[in-house]
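Sequence design from tokenized structure. All designs in this work follow the same two-part layout: the structure record, then the generated sequence. An example of the structure record is given first.
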């Protein structure tokens, strides 16, 4: 009887070590987040020193006149809107009165603001809806405001923030431009910019801060006057 051949034992591969190091992409995101937070804190502090008072740049008397002024400000300067609205509000400064004004008459008055055919129809239409569905008052919710003709998310955000004191961060051209320039957001679109800014700044500061950024963008960090290195605030955060 032949000798039994020894059994072959399979060698087990060495146990894999579980790495406790975070993936490089996660680490990079964390560092980027920390740097954005530092820039945001410095920006907020600087703007608060420059603009301790934040008056609303659009002249208005109540939520309705603010709503109309904000609607007119689309692709138009606040200065021009403030020149036009006294003439419009002289004939109608309530939803009930505005609903009775012919669209052609509204259009003639607001023509200097641009896009007058669309804006006049929206003003007339939303006034009638306010009378019919909201008792002649401007609704205090984003959803109801955004259902009104000519009222998008940005317009609704301004009204909610400035007329009703609800925390909001309306993103206009200046804010979108500066948030991108200051590397607070990827700047892909205004929706992402709004989300990033809300994430970086305390909710209690949103209503003041969005006006402070607008003021700074108009006076110091203009589209052509600063390339991201010229104005004082851009220089201040450049190394962060």
């Amino acid at each position: 009887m032949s000798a039994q051949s020894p059994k072959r034992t399979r060698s087990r591969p060495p146990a894999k070590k579980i790495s406790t190091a975070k993936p490089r992409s996660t680490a990079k995101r964390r560092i980027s987040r920390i740097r954005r937070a530092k820039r945001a804190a410095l920006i907020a502090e600087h703007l608060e020193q420059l603009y301790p008072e934040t008056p609303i740049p659009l002249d208005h008397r109540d939520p309705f006149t603010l709503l109309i002024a904000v609607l007119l400000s689309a692709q138009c300067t606040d200065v021009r809107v403030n020149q036009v609205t006294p003439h419009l509000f002289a004939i109608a400064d309530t939803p009930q009165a505005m609903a009775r004004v012919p669209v052609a008459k509204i259009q003639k008055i607001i023509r200097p603001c641009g896009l007058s055919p669309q804006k006049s129809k929206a003003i007339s239409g939303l006034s009638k809806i306010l009378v019919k569905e909201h008792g002649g008052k401007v609704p205090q919710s984003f959803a109801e405001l955004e259902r009104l003709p000519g009222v998008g998310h940005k317009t609704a955000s301004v009204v909610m923030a400035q007329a009703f004191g609800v925390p909001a961060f309306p993103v206009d051209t200046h804010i979108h431009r500066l948030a991108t320039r200051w590397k607070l957001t990827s700047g892909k679109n205004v929706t992402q910019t709004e989300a990033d800014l809300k994430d970086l700044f305390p909710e209690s500061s949103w209503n003041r801060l969005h006006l402070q950024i607008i003021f700074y963008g108009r006076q110091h960090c203009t589209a052509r006057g600063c390339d991201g290195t010229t104005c004082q605030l851009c220089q201040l955060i450049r190394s962060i």
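The two ends are 83 Å apart (CA to CA). We note this feature because it recurs in several other targets discussed in the main text.
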